[in-house]
Design a protein that fits this description.
Mean pLDDT: 80
Number of helices: 8
Strand order of the largest sheet: 1-4-3-2
Radius of gyration: 25 Å
Structural class: alpha+beta
Number of strands: 4
Order of helices and strands: EHHHHHHHEEHE
Low-confidence stretches: 1-16
Largest sheet: 4 strands, mixed
Distance between the termini: 18 Å
Shape: elongated
């Protein structure tokens, strides 16, 4: 007997929670976009005035953050749409699609920056390279502080609402902070008499950006290909089932659906129980699993007759 319990009892609560999560994500994304616009203008101006290729590259990276923030906002809006005829299971995977697009933008930005730095290094004409001004060094310090602050701010809320797209945005901020560290080292080295270090910093920035893009991409792919939930989550669900009675768990499967979890459970119960009794068992297990982990969007409980 299969008891597929619809979430009608908790629909209102979940809708309110989803709306609240969407509001949080939108607010965090707007804050990030605003700071990135200000920071990009400052870094680009400083890079041009101070004659620092590393700082101009860093500014380009911040420009990609603005685009990335806009993409994240679109993804959040799409993923929070209610189920419809074309998407009866919901739209959560749109967040993963957005994260993949963001990863592609990050990787492309990184390679362009890396190419510019490598071109200068392999040209061999180091004497003609400009020595960056003090303003570029100041811009690097400001960028590190602001972007690291945005990383932690975004990461905290991404974990709170378990948003893949928002977490991708957080790591985008961190990659920008790390690239600014590379800029700082390169600019400082150039000002100390090693102008080639300004271009070398571009290579360092490229590596950090591409690494962040790879991590974002792999996380999104895992969530789009029905990867199982973590061992801790599975054990948490298993314990919730066992707390409902001395049932033998025949099968317990989980899969990630965007930021949500789908759970399929098979248990064995006394075959002499009535239909109502087995229904109650399945319903109790369903409710316990949803209660122990709010990320569970769908829980199917199948009850098999126990073999004596």
């Amino acid at each position: 007997m299969t008891n597929d319990i619809n979430d009608t009892k908790n629909t209102n609560e979940k809708n309110k929670s989803s709306k609240s999560n969407e509001q949080i994500a939108v607010q965090v994304s707007f804050v990030g976009i605003l700071f990135n616009i200000i920071l990009t203008a400052f870094k680009l101006s400083a890079g041009i005035i101070a004659g620092s290729m590393a700082m101009v590259s860093d500014a380009v990276h911040s420009m990609s953050d603005i685009l990335g923030g806009a993409i994240v906002l679109v993804g959040i809006k799409l993923s929070n749409k209610k189920s419809d005829k074309e998407h009866p299971y919901g739209h959560e995977r749109f967040e993963c699609v957005v994260a993949i697009i963001l990863a592609a933008i990050l990787a492309a930005t990184g390679f362009v920056i890396g190419y510019g730095g490598a071109k200068n290094i392999f040209s061999g004409d180091y004497q003609s390279l400009a020595i960056p001004g003090l303003l570029a060094l100041i811009a690097a310090v400001v960028s590190i502080a602001v972007k690291e602050g945005l990383f932690w701010y975004t990461k905290i809320f991404a974990k709170k609402i378990n948003s893949t797209a928002l977490m991708a945005g957080a790591w985008h901020h961190r990659s920008d902070a790390l690239s600014s560290v590379g800029s700082f080292v390169g600019i400082l080295g150039a000002r100390l008499g090693f102008p080639i270090l300004d271009s070398a910093a571009c290579i360092i920035i490229c590596v950090f950006i591409v690494k962040a893009a790879y991590n974002i991409f792999m996380d999104a792919i895992g969530k789009m290909t029905d990867r199982t939930a973590s061992d801790e989550t599975i054990e948490e669900i298993r314990e919730a089932i066992q707390n409902q009675g001395d049932f033998k768990i025949d099968q317990l499967k989980t899969r990630l659906f965007g930021d949500k979890i789908y759970v399929d459970i098979e248990i064995s119960a006394d075959g002499n129980l009535s239909l109502n009794q087995t229904h109650d068992i399945a319903e109790n297990i369903h409710d316990a699993v949803e209660k122990v982990n709010p990320r569970v969007k769908h829980c199917m409980v199948h009850v098999n007759p126990q073999e004596h």
